[in-house]
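Tokens in:
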């Protein structure tokens, strides 16, 4: 039999033992029913069966299993929704930041790019140079961010269910996502740099 979470789906497992009711009688019982068809009809039959045994036995807090699961995960889902929104905002800010830095760099190096193109550098080579610069900055940020995220994973442990706090797929997926965002954010200024008129760029700062 697999592990059982009695109170909540979060947190660590606690040891449980199954004993006969005669060995350990208690005042309240939790009954779990697996039904086929309409659950409401099964509940009516269960109430009738209990009433035949003792009409004074109350049946209360009846809920479907999915409802109980949703109750347990309601707060973590809300927290994760907030984290997702902030993460999406962070990705947008990262893309804007990378775009701004690379665009400023292209503007500052316009004379250098013009000289390179005047000496025979192709537009594809200029694009590759600018994109490499953006990806290098992103790689440094991803390494620092991954180290920081790895250090604070224990803080998020209570919010996770079904995923390890140091899940490698998550770390790799985020790195790939940020790399794709950086690639796109760097491609726009790189495309602009490839269109620089060599003579105009040289004269502008000559």
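Residues out:
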């Amino acid at each position: 039999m697999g592990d059982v979470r009695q109170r909540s789906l979060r947190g660590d497992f606690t040891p449980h033992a199954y004993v006969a009711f005669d060995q350990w009688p208690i005042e309240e019982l939790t009954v779990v029913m697996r039904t086929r068809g309409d659950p409401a009809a099964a509940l009516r039959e269960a109430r009738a069966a209990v009433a035949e045994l003792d009409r004074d036995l109350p049946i209360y807090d009846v809920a479907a299993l999915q409802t109980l699961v949703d109750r347990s995960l309601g707060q973590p889902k809300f927290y994760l929704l907030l984290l997702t929104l902030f993460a999406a905002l962070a990705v947008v800010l990262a893309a804007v930041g990378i775009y701004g830095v690379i665009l400023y760099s292209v503007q500052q190096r316009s004379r250098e790019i013009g000289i390179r193109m005047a000496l025979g550098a192709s537009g594809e080579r200029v694009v590759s140079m600018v994109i490499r610069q953006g990806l290098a900055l992103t790689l440094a940020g991803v390494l620092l961010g991954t180290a920081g995220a790895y250090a604070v994973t224990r803080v998020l442990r209570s919010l996770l269910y079904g995923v390890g706090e140091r899940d490698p797929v998550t770390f790799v997926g985020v790195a790939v996502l940020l790399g794709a965002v950086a690639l796109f954010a760097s491609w726009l200024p790189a495309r602009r740099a490839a269109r620089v008129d060599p003579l105009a760029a040289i004269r502008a700062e000559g």
